[in-house]
Amino acid sequence: MNFTDEILDFLIKKNIKTVFSYPGEQILPLYNGLNESPIKNIMVRSEQGASHMADGYSRITNHVGVCLATAGPGATNLMTGIATAYKDSSSVIAITGRCKKEYINKNYFQEINMDFLNLQNGYFVDAPDIKYFEKAFNESINTKKPIHLNIPYGVLLDSNDDNNRNNNENNYKDEKNNKKDNTSILNNIDYNTTGKPLLLIGQGIYGNLSYNDILKINDILKNSHIPIATTYPARGVIDENNPICLGLVGGRGTEKANQYILNCDTVYCLGASLSYNTLPPLIRDKIIPKIKDIPININNLEDIELLINTLNYKYNNVYINNIGNNINPNNKLCGDYSLKINEILNNLPDDTIITTDAGNHTVFVSLLKTCGAPKNIISSHSMGTMGFGLPASIGVKFGCLDNNIDREVVSINGDGGFQMNIQELATVSENNLKILIIIMKNNRLNIFGDIKNPDFNKIADGYNIDNIYISDIDEIENNIKYYLNNNKPYLMVVECENESLPKKSFN
Ligand SMILES: Cc1ncc(C[n+]2csc(CCOP(=O)(O)OP(=O)(O)O)c2C)c(N)n1
Ligand SMILES: [Mg+2]
User: Where does the record place the Thiamine pyrophosphate enzyme central domain (predicted)?
Assistant: First the structure.
């Protein structure tokens, strides 16, 4: 068997159903092999699209997303998506090709050092040994980070018999599983049960849970006696309509969550990285001393149940009620841009998965959407990548199709960011993906200046995607209905006036 075939077998064994890729000389054996395998090999139109798609796929499925590109320009194009996945802790495997080993470092065609993709870690696959893949997959799943595999052309063609394997075990030794058990972790926490507690939940709560289990977390959290606030990527893990949920913490957080985190005595922190989005500089130093990290391992729902039961037991006498209902402080939003976003959100099913790009629309969606389901909004939180929204929605859609996730997928974009990966309309069209693609056309890059736009409808026509131009807010409802009742992509250009953002809670 040659190494390419062994890689394909490995991917199938790991339940990889879709790979996002672009061909090139140095990766061709694997690219061609994928086309002949049961795995869907989705050809993108730029490698940046592939890495964002793998990221979107991982975010919705909680499994790894895989992207593949050739050496040199293929690898550099992947980079923005890999950095985005890295900053938001998304499990992505990036496979790149390389010239034959004898040409490495010799100014060969497309030969550059590709270690820039190793933001978390990466492996140079110098021998046809599948342990590199095992190692990379384990690492990506355990760390929730992108891991890079760089394979020289010759190695792809090598036979994988024992003589060719790498004998240096240190290169790929599996990490020892020395995780402690959750009961002892919880017993070792110093509970400060005299004061006011808050449970702050980040996306680490998803642990190694399946998508279906992630949907059930709400049923456990709603029994908490302790108020819960979340980070952005964890929004919807508990229904934000539930009074026990104070909503999002941070610069764009709810007043209730932000007041509570400032005034409480202890913040029990589960699976939150405490980025500057969650704890902006102005409040950071006041909160950090009150944080008690709960480093439990989440492999099944009982792990979360144990935590909630423990906290309820410890805080039995200080049952907290009358927190009141809490929704985002959106009453100040009344401009044309935000009203149109609101109208869009109101006409979509509540559990729709919305991907956003980077710009004012990102903030309007965040402030106006009440998240009742996990992964209601998928966004580039910590990188703020323009061009993320469309390809991420494609990855999300494939994740839904592969896992029978029956939710609508809607991509809301600014007119600037949309043009950064506009070519992926081809991927939408070619695969007839039912995605509602919305471009908020304000001819503006928010505070940065104006932008001249092409005729987006003509572009959609060119890609053979059904589309409409909307200038009046009253046209939104019927067009969304039309989209929902059909089984194909639909592109809506929504003309809107520029609108400034409301002030942040903290700067
Ligand atoms: C790749 C990249 N380049 C530049 C920026 C800086 N930036 C953030 S938002 C923005 C303007 C976004 O405008 P648009 O896409 O039209 O969205 P809108 O604000 O109109 O909703 C820019 C230039 C960025 N976040 N990402
Ligand atoms: Mg704009």
Answer: 196-298
CA–CA distances in Å: residue 92 to residues 103, 145, 394, 409, 466: 28, 6, 15, 21, 32
Q: Is 446 in the pocket of ligand 1 (CB under 6 A)?
A: yes
Indicate the number of domains in the chain. Answer: 3
| Domain of 408, in residue numbers | 330-495
Q: How far is CA 40 from CA 36, 61, 220, 468, in A?
A: 9, 16, 36, 31
- Give the up-direction half-sphere exposure of residue 136: CA atoms within 13 A in the CB hemisphere: 28
CA of 414 to the centre of ligand 2 (A): 4
Query: Are 50 and 143 part of one and the same domain?
Result: yes
Instruction: Judge if 376 and 391 occupy the same domain.
Output: yes
The answer to whether the CB of 358 is under 6 A from ligand 1 is: yes
148 and 36 fall within a common domain:
yes
Best mutation site among 368, 446, 450, 501 for ligand 1 pocket (most ligand atoms within 8 Å of CB)? 446
Q: Is 440 in the pocket of ligand 1 (CB under 6 A)?
A: yes
Residues 129 and 236 in one domain: no
Is-contact 55 84, C-beta < 8 A? yes
Ligand 1 atom at minimal distance to the Cα of residue 498: 20
Answer whether 360 contacts ligand 1 (Cβ < 6 A).
Answer: yes
Same domain, 118 and 160: yes
Distance 465 CA to ligand 2 centre (A): 22
Q: Which helix (H) or strand (E) holds 302?
A: helix 301-314
- pLDDT given at position 184: 94
Q: What is the pLDDT of residue 321?
A: 52
Packed helices 336-346 and 360-368: angle between N→C axes, nearest 10 degrees: 50
Quick check: is 348 in a domain?
yes
- Determine, yes or no, domain membership for 407: yes
CA 147 to CA 118: how far, in whole Å?
A: 6
Per 3-state DSSP, the chain is made up of helix, strand and coil in percentages (nearest 5) of 40, 15, 40
Residues 336 and 465 in one domain: yes
Q: Is the CB of 448 under 6 A from ligand 1?
A: yes
pLDDT at 173: 47
- On the 0-12 / 13-18 / 19+ scale of CB atoms within 10 A, 178 is exposed
CATH code of the domain in which 261 resides: 3.40.50.1220
Confidence (pLDDT) at 320 = 56
Q: Is 26 domain-assigned?
A: yes
Query: What residues in the chain have per-residue pLDDT under 70?
Result: 162-163, 165-179, 317-332, 507
From CA 143, how far away is CA 378, in angstroms rounded? 19
CATH code for position 32: 3.40.50.970
- Domain endpoint, select from 287, 314, 341: 314
